[in-house]
Design a protein that fits this description.
Largest sheet: 3 strands, mixed
Shape: globular
Helix content: 40-55%
Number of strands: 3
Number of helices: 4
Low-confidence stretches: 13-34
Structural class: mainly alpha
Length: 153
């Protein structure tokens, strides 16, 4: 059965405080996250930023005529920062480790996942990477604004 096209825009991103008690994180976090939290409140959630960024990258890939893979985090293997799996139907799932890594490396892995899943050649991959990076840069300030609004509420 063919997939039905989506007739409505994706649902808006909601930021949710998943800690058991406001102001008390359920995980200790890395040293940099603890330092940010101690410096003036909770640090922005890298998972939420990942979700917004890969949504932006997927929409950009589709606008370029490419197939957008599914994204998940983390990869099943603890030894990998990124993995790409092809399903029997031909779809791709790109898994990227977010925690404990610089966010630029996470974005680079997501972009490379789109390039590899579409099997782009060297000539086609360069302009696609450039466009995906341009769009990924716009997602950061949007996420920061959403985080500040959620914290103020």
């Amino acid at each position: 059965m063919p997939a039905t096209p989506r007739t409505h825009p994706p649902a808006p991103l909601r930021l949710v405080d998943a800690s058991p008690a406001r102001g008390r994180p359920h995980r200790t976090g890395s040293a940099s996250v603890r330092a940010q939290r101690d410096a003036g409140g909770p640090a922005p959630d890298p998972s939420g930023r990942f979700v917004l960024t890969v949504r932006t990258l997927a929409m950009t890939a589709r606008s370029l005529g490419l197939t957008a893979p599914s994204f998940q985090s983390p990869p099943r293997s603890d030894e990998l920062d990124r993995s790409i799996q092809r399903t029997p139907s031909g779809d791709c799932v790109v898994a990227v480790r977010v925690r404990g890594r610089p966010f630029g490396a996470v974005v680079a892995d997501a972009i490379e996942g789109i390039v590899v899943s579409n099997e782009l050649g060297v000539d086609a991959a360069g302009p696609v990477r450039d466009e995906l990076w341009r769009e990924a840069e716009t997602a950061g300030p949007v996420y920061d604004e959403l985080w500040r609004a959620a914290e103020a509420a």
